[in-house]
Amino acid sequence: MEVKHRCNQVLELGFPLGGLAKLFAQEWEGDVTVVMPATLAQYSKIIQNPTHVDLQKAANQGRRCTWEKLSAIKSNCGIELALDDSVAILNHMRRLKKSAERAASATSSSHHGLASTTRFNASRRI
């Protein structure tokens, strides 16, 4: 959090480290973090443009790191979907209850109104 705050300050002040600050200040959220282990050789190349071979190695390493986390991602998605379904069911039940309450109140109020209307109509016909 502190690093993110400081990077946002750097961005606001307009220092030339903006590109690096944007990386650390970006918005993100989640429960599973996939991090590739870095070697000293990779740190030494951090400010250089990567070669095609470096990109391929990083992509393969990223895939390997992601495979380890797939079960956690699957579990989290399952929980999220179950919660979404539960919320949808509860919202549907709430709408049905409100609809039933409105129908009951309309029936009781119209029932009283119907009786007077019926009497009024009946007396008018006679």
UniProtKB/TrEMBL annotation:
Region spans: Disordered: 101-126
InterPro entries: NTE (IPR050301)
Biased composition (Low complexity): 102-118
Signal peptide stretch: none
Protein name per its UniProtKB record: Triacylglycerol lipase SDP1-like
Naturally occurring in which organism (per UniProt): Camelina sativa (False flax)
Classification lineage: Eukaryota, Viridiplantae, Streptophyta, Embryophyta, Tracheophyta
